[in-house]
């Protein structure tokens, strides 16, 4: 996990979570990247996700990484594109309220 910290308050203002297999085989999964609204627009999402990828590459060179992003999350789609992620499939989610 990579976190962005506001130096003036020591508050965490963003994170990027990348889960890796312990043996370095298979694939890693980027589960979440988020930045507080008041800190958006400064490239923190890109920086945190890139740092997580660099860390993973240092531990397990050649490991495949996957990420899931909602189709309407334009900022993170841009980050993913800038980092070299390419779409592989789409998913449809259903909900039933009981």
Automatic annotation (TrEMBL):
Residue ranges of domain N-acetyltransferase in the record: 1-98
InterPro entries: Acyl_CoA_acyltransferase, GNAT_dom
GO-annotated molecular function: acyltransferase activity, transferring groups other than amino-acyl groups
Pfam family, one: Acetyltransf_1
Matching PROSITE patterns: GNAT
SUPFAM superfamilies attached to this UniProt entry: Acyl-CoA N-acyltransferases (Nat)
Listed name of the protein: N-acetyltransferase domain-containing protein
Organism per entry: Streptomyces capitiformicae
Biological classification of the source: Bacteria, Bacillati, Actinomycetota, Actinomycetes, Kitasatosporales
């Amino acid at each position: 996990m990579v976190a962005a910290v506001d130096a003036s308050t020591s508050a965490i203002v963003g994170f990027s979570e990348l889960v890796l297999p312990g043996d370095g085989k298979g694939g890693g999964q980027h589960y979440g990247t988020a930045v507080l609204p008041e800190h958006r627009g400064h490239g923190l999402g890109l920086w945190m996700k890139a740092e997580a990828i660099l860390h993973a590459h240092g531990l397990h060179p050649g490991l495949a990484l996957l990420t899931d992003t909602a189709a309407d999350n334009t900022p993170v789609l841009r980050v993913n594109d800038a980092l070299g992620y390419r779409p592989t499939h789409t998913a449809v989610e259903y909900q039933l309220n009981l």
